[in-house]
Amino acid sequence: MKNPIVIAIDGTSASGKSTNSKLVAKALGYVYVDTGAMYRTLAWHCLQKRVDVHDEKAVAAACRKWKTKLECVEQDGLRSVRLLVENYFPEKEIRTPETAAAVAHVAAVPKVRDWMKQTQRDCIEFGNLVMEGRDIGTNVFPETDFKFYLDAALHERTARRTADGVHENLAARDQRDSQRASAPLMIALGAVVINNSDMTSAQTSGRLLKEIRARLPA
Ligand code: DC
After folding, report:
1. Is 3.40.50.300 the CATH classification of the domain at 6-215?
2. Whose CA is nearest to atom 20 of ligand 1?
3. Nearest-CA neighbor of 113 among 169, 185, 50, 49?
């Protein structure tokens, strides 16, 4: 495919990135990429291999050596990319509290971020993408014309996580994501910012699709 389109959807935790990115990808027939899952996969891999996630050099070495593969799968009308480690996708394992606690350390390592950027850019082999994360519009695909930043009030995001059965200090997570030295969470230049505190996902994805369709070449 010549010049695939990449829709970059960044934003804070629990701002609706996953739900809305999937809805947009389905509506457009694009491939969905969850980059947070890739960082979580490396965090899980480090825990499995007894690599100390606080040891930057050890994490960078684990990332240099792990045997991974990208694959594109289709489920319920949604095509999405998965990162396999030794041919295994740790779908459940990457959502445990242990992995969640380790991932911010792994995601702060510059060599890890370089590896992730290259791997995430390689996803265009699968076609047009909707990619969600923290640094997609600023760092991974800075050249895309389709940049979005989702946010919602802290109390609203906390309520959403609690409704999902996850108790997490989102203020601390916001701080870690936006204050790390390497590719911190920022609003990309030219990004459309959507605060969806008072919006349903149908409304948020509707707004995203309207903005995207207005920018797509005829
Ligand atoms: O979106 P998530 O909760 O699955 O992300 C997991 C962690 O990875 C979170 O601490 C932020 C980090 N992350 C990142 O630094 N850059 C990305 N592009 C995606 C996630």
Report:
1. yes
2. 36
3. 185
Ligand 1 centroid distance, CA of 215 (Å): 27
Domain coordinates in residue numbering, the chain: 6-215
CA distances from 91 to 14, 37, 41, 170 (A): 19, 9, 9, 23
CB contact at 8 A, 20 and 205: yes
The counts of H helices and E strands in the chain are: 8, 7
Average pLDDT of 15-20?
97
Spatial contact of 175 and 133, defined as CB atoms under 8 Å apart: no
CB 136 within 8 A of CB 206: no
Q: By alpha-carbon position, which residue is closest to atom 15 of ligand 1?
A: 107
Tokens representing residue 12 in the block: 């804070």
Please give the span between the terminal C-alpha atoms of the chain, in angstroms, as a whole number: 17
DSSP state for residue 123 in the 8-state scheme = G
Q: Say how far residue 9 (Cα) sits from the centre of its chain.
A: 8
Q: How confident is the model at residue 77 (pLDDT cuts 50, 70, 90)?
A: very high
| Residues facing 11 on adjacent strands | 150
